[in-house]
Amino acid sequence: MDAFTRRRFLLASGVTGAAALAAGGGALAFSRLLGSADRGSEPPGETVVLVTLYGGNDGLNTVIPYADPAYHASRPELAYSAEKVLPLNDALGLNPVLTGLKRLWDDKRLAIVLGVGYPRPDRSHFRSMDIWQTGTPEAPATTGWIGRWLDDIKAPVETAVSFEPVLPPLLVGRQRIGSCISYQGLDLPPWVDAGLVAELGRVEPGEPAMQARAASAYADLLEMRRVIKGADEATGSPKAAAEPAVPATGTGGESALSAQLALVARCVEVGVPTRVYSVSLGGFDTHADELSAQELLLRQLDTALSSFVDRMVQSEAGRRVTVVVYSEFGRRVRANASDGTDHGTAGPMLVLGHRVAGGFYGEQPSLTDLDQGDLKATADFRDVFGSILGSVLKADPSRYFDGYEPRLLPLLTHA
């Protein structure tokens, strides 16, 4: 099929896909990533999946201090009653929609690090996220803490992978960077058959290199579509029903976390040597009508994470996967006049997986001893990320945080 015919058909049919549009853009192809697996060797080393919640998740309505009168007094219209929360102990409980995470907590596969932040907090989405991803609160940096680790080990291209449209700064080093593979597969109109698109994805002898690359990109998108569709069928829930559109906030993050994690799961199960995956969920900038908006998001998070962890425990490689969930900041203690919350500081981080030593780590911040209305962080985010570097990636965490010496937490068991 010549280039003009191929292009005319694709435009006329309304077939879209991010990878096809980026076919010449240097992104790692999903098929190439799967092809890097050595199925006859020992399983790859331990793996970390970093889940970024863009927008600033309200930690106080995620891990809820339901027994604290100050919580109810500060946000009477947003506070959850003790009867509604999923209790974790006599002081803290999970948001009512986080039933999957509550089950993982009961199974000792969920750790919650309380009050995580950094010195002199910045309430800008972009600066604060930059701090979390570069690991340098003191001054802006041009590399991410994972990127610096990639430099150190002279990592091949498949070592760190983001299933997001844009490569996050987290995975950028000076000499090495992670790969970016958008989870967004083909969007086929009802009248276009997938088999026809597969034919378009067959490289013809003698095709120009760029035309052949565009063709293979469509074949790649079909494979991603198959993996995601298979994950939806395995959970018994149509993707559209499981993951409705999230509120747009412009702060970053994707809206199909289950789809991204399905691709991660496939890579883990076939033995891809990737050590770090980055995925995201956006929409957490809840300045107004927070209760319904955050519950929608947390329900998606709960379904995606619990299904992923359950799937991972079924294989040896999956049992070596640790998931870390973070957001750029929490929200203010007091509600605003729009039944929402504004940009705050500290919040909880979640660590999940088969090897996780479940339970609470750190200290819940006071709701009365505040810094201009905001929580005072009781843990530094570099302690959590440093612990992951040391226990999962087997690296010296003091090398990657610009002179900061992380206080390591016993988040993982040796089982």
TrEMBL record:
It holds the Pfam family DUF1501. InterPro entries: DUF1501, TAT_signal. It comes from the Bacteria. This is Uncharacterized conserved protein, DUF1501 family. It comes from Micromonospora viridifaciens. The lineage of its organism: Bacteria, Bacillati, Actinomycetota, Actinomycetes, Micromonosporales.
